Amino acid sequence: MSKIVGLTGGIATGKSLVSSFLNQQEIPVVDADQITRQVEAKDTPGLDAIVTEFGVSILQSDGQLNRQLLGQIVFSDVEKLRLLVRTIDPFIRSQITKEIRNLASHPLIVLDAPTLFESGYQQLVDEVLMVSCTANIQLQRLMSRNQLSITQANQRIKAQWPIEIKQLLADYVIYNSDTKDKTYQQVVDWLNEQQVF
Questions:
Q1: Measured between alpha carbons, how far is 39 from 26 in angstroms, rounded to an integer?
Q2: Which helix (H) or strand (E) holds 108?
Q3: 165-189: average pLDDT
Q4: pTM
């Protein structure tokens, strides 16, 4: 029977770095962000549901979702963010469940989900692995990575649960405020503790 681990962290804390490293170790990773992009693609029931709630103005001229505009809308209004989550969650959850089922022959499966707790996906996993870093490093990384102002970056950080709360709920925390090598070593240490190989 597979052990399913939820991988999460605050935005720009380094979760993708850890996810990529796990993939390199040939551990299957179900990527909730990638699934979200699939279910929000053009001509899908997921995108139709979003348009029903937010209107056609959130579409680009080619019929694709305007992610930047939708992000501006939901990250500046917590009620609209909740509406988006309620609208798209059933499509995402269904696809996550299907992908996990398809990987059932593997001893360890990782569900990479930045909003694992916010979306209630912790119910789908056996253990939670969290990636964390200092608040200042998180802010600087997010501003640099997404070309955001300090106000925009803080809005996105505050739209997620506080890192401190996620750390309390996690079974294991990887600290990513130092070098990549030090982060990788923590992942190796965690892998060595797993009783699935």
A1: 26
A2: strand 108-112
A3: 96
A4: 0.89
